[in-house]
Design a protein that fits this description.
210 residues; mainly alpha; 9 helices; 76% helix; 0% strand; globular
Length: 210
């Protein structure tokens, strides 16, 4: 791995830029509290480890060589976010009740995992960004990918926890207000719709190879 400090700084900068993961974690933390936020973090970063494993196994290189494969992942992520938006807006997450019903933590975890698994920002990170720091002359490329991926996951956890703590505190204040409880479902649904649009329009497309 070349320039480990440069990779650390560049990865930290990219992770600090808010993306679909941060919005999902923030939404869950505001709506349901810090326990749901932490379950979201575990789901999101579990998916990061799956991305690391795919990159180390060479699957990311195959996806990078196929615009079709990348598009399938992109649209699958958008479709799942549309499903979450539909489920939320029709009242699956919360109805207009005095007390919001918390969703089971395993479900929150699974949603976080799937959102990050199809997150274009993370996919492009492993397709285009991380390979720039691989030193092929040093050998053992899969090990280099695993090390850089593990560092990325740790940085991601640190960033995610900050969002959970901040959003959880804000959510506690908001949930005490009836107006927020009536409108939270619609705000959450609109956020999912925005994330779906982001996933569908994300780019650039990987270069098609012959």
């Amino acid at each position: 791995m070349t320039h480990p400090l440069l990779f650390l700084l560049a990865a930290a900068t990219l992770i600090a830029i808010p993306g679909p993961n941060h919005l999902y974690i923030t939404t869950r933390s505001i709506a349901e509290g810090r326990r749901a936020g932490m379950a979201s973090v575990l789901g999101v970063e579990s998916a990061t480890l799956l991305h690391v494993a795919a990159a180390a196994a060479g699957l990311s290189a195959l996806i990078a060589a196929s615009a079709t494969a990348f598009s399938v992942l992109r649209y699958a992520g958008a479709a799942y976010l549309l499903y979450l938006a539909y489920r939320t807006l029709r009242g699956g997450d919360a109805a207009d009740q005095p007390v919001l019903t918390a969703r089971p933590l395993p479900r929150v975890y699974l949603d976080g995992l799937l959102i990050n698994l199809f997150n274009p920002k993370v996919i492009l990170f492993f397709l285009a960004f991380l390979p720039q720091f691989i030193d092929r002359g040093a050998g053992n490329v899969p090990l280099q990918i695993v090390i850089m991926g593990a560092v990325t996951a740790l940085l991601g956890i640190a960033s995610d926890v900050v969002y959970v703590l901040a959003a959880g505190s804000l959510g506690g204040w908001l949930r005490a207000r009836p107006t927020f409880q009536r409108r939270q479902r619609y705000a959450t649904g609109l956020i999912y719709l925005g994330l779906a649009a982001f996933a569908a329009l994300a780019g650039p497309q990987p270069r098609q190879t012959s």
